[in-house]
Amino acid sequence: MTNQNFIPCAQVNQAQRLTDKRERSKLAKLAMIAAILFLVLNLGVPLMAQVMVSTAPRAEISLNGIWSYVLNQAQSPIPSSGWQTTRIPEIELTGDSSVWYKRTINVPTSWMQPGRSFFIELEKAGHYSAVYCNDTYYAENYGQFSPFEVDITPCIVGGQDNEIEIYVHKADTTYVRSGLNLNQSSCPPSNPDCMGNAYRGSAPTVSQRNWVGLVGDITFSWRPTENVSDVAIVTSVRNWTMQANITVTGGDSQTTVQATVLDGSNPVLTLPAQPVVSGTATLSAPWSTPVLWGPAPYGQPKLYMLQTQLLEAGVAVDTIYTRFGFREVWISGKEILLNGQPLWMYGNFFGKLSPVRYINDRRPEAYWLWILEQSGMNMIESHWDDPGRPFLDLADEMGIMVIGAFYCDGRPAGQSEVDSVTGWTDWMASTASTWVQARRNHPSIIMWRPTDALPQGVTNQPVYKAIAAAVQPEDPQNRPIVDTGEVYSWVQTIQSSENPQECDNGQAMANKLASETIPMFTREISGNWNLPCRDSFFDTFYQLSWDGGGAGILLGLPPFQGNGVTPTWFSISGEGNRPTTHQAAPNWIAQQWTPTYYSNDSVALWQTYVSPNLLATAPQYGDYQASGVPTDVQSAFLVSEDGIANPIGVIAAQDGSGTAWFTVPEAGNYDLIYTSGGQDVVVPVTVNPPAPF
């Protein structure tokens, strides 16, 4: 008779090993926790006493919050007076030429380990930014479109306040591109930045275009000086392979890298170790069973995590986690294929300086994308600017396809002009290269169209070709690049060319689609949407594009009605760093929206031609709110118990609410860690995927 409670010895041993492993892991984490340092990032407040050196190889904490600033001062010397306070990130500043920002970080002596480097990252700043530390200049950047990271290791002094200073300037004089001192004296008084404007995305008014300020997240982080500095992921549906192109900083002849694909906390694929040669290595492995990423019917918004380890003589010295989706985009004849199926995109883009973009917060952005799904759409293009890291993370999680874009001049006549065709083109190509490096691992980006309308003084095709030449070597996934001979973008007006009071019948587009030898999608429909024939025009145009093999349609009409919303809560990623004034964004707090005629029509067309079901996805990971945190807590970390992400830190709320918000890259088990009353506190928490909308 079999005892149902009997467990074979092998299983007992295996269970015991798993238990021992978990206990050892917890003990190791407790040792690390006892050593983790909790930054106190308020101005003039020192770090908590009696902290020890953290054993975490990597950590990152948000510097969002209260900073001091001074407007319209020279870059040198750093101002000694006149400082006020503001919340960072902030909505873009207009009407000013420059801003100085500063705050202090007190780093204890125990942090100053050999082989550790410290960094500051600006997620978005416009247009020129320079980072200083303790009054010493470290690095500068031209352009608002990509994150900018600076190694400030030599600056950090243990046991005292270290002051971070950031200088931001609009596109003018020596602050346009390296080596140029721009003379805009020929610009009219009504538009004094007519040349500087050519380096910025268009805006509703001339005064808003050349804005200045810090409008993205700011982080302070550390990692080993010998580290994995870049991971470029390549997934192939045609070959069923997984590849990671690794770049390493430091290392010697014994340095190797290895990687593991994680599905949650479960390893599902091993990429065998390879030696690092001249700072690079390529890891690869066959993979025949991945869940394909994509909106229905191309797949599902399934994301994996690649854990990459740098080993020195077989010992791991650095670990980095990179999120990705398994999918492939390629061209076959006149079709764009996603995972082997003909691509159909229908979508929208947000407006110039849209609050949805510049609030830079996951909640309104997630709700905006969900509204698009409920309006029969599966695609967005940022068009006027880079969409930002939170937006692209959400597109990955929700299965929204993205046309990668960061610049459109889109000017009123005479608003911008280039100072030098060669200089401007070279700068734009270099900017595109840096931008692709920062965004290439997002599976949501299906194809690239970095620039749209260009300033006066340059010709489209030479610029498009120069940008494509810069993009191609930075994208090992070889996604199509629009307007370069790979994909043709059609521009459509509602009005008939013969009679502007009548609607176009779509025949010109249908003829072009039939005669074209490469894939084609309608980049934009514009014109007089008040014409009474608009609905029948759009119905006809949609059907012609669908039946004729077009890759999709992009529009720019609002899918929802409403008067906006006033944010009322503490932000996800830091103290007081989001606007609390009324914003022209969907009411993500109450989750209420009213469709427009355009949204209703889009739904009917989607259900008629594409699918009877609308997309209905939600963010997979999102945020975690820690409640009941003691009010003396200055900052806190979430550390993964499952080993699926690097430590994430935030500044706890200083409003007496006892809350700390975290943006979490992966659901799972974490330890919430903070110091209160001089004691380290460890609270196990589980971060679940958010409920669907």
Distance between the termini: 52 Å
Structural class: alpha+beta
Number of helices: 10
Percent of residues in helices: 10-25%
Q: What is the CATH homology-level superfamily of the domain at 226-324?
A: Immunoglobulins
Question: Could you say what the CATH architecture of the domain at 226-324 is?
Answer: Sandwich
Major beta sheet summary:
8 strands, mixed
Average pLDDT score: 86
Care to describe what's here?
With 693 residues, the chain is of the alpha+beta class. The protein has a domain of 99 residues: Immunoglobulins (Immunoglobulin-like, Sandwich). The protein has 10 helices and 37 strands. An 8-stranded mixed β-sheet has the order 9-5-12-1-34-33-36-37, with helices on one face. Strands 3-2-4-10-7-8 form a 6-stranded antiparallel β-sheet, with no helix packed on it. Strands 26-25-24-23-29 form a 5-stranded parallel β-sheet, covered by helices on one side. α6 links the parallel β25 and β26. The longest helix has 27 residues. It starts with 8 loop residues before the first helix and ends in a 6-residue tail after the last strand. The relative contact order is 0.12. The N terminus is likely disordered.
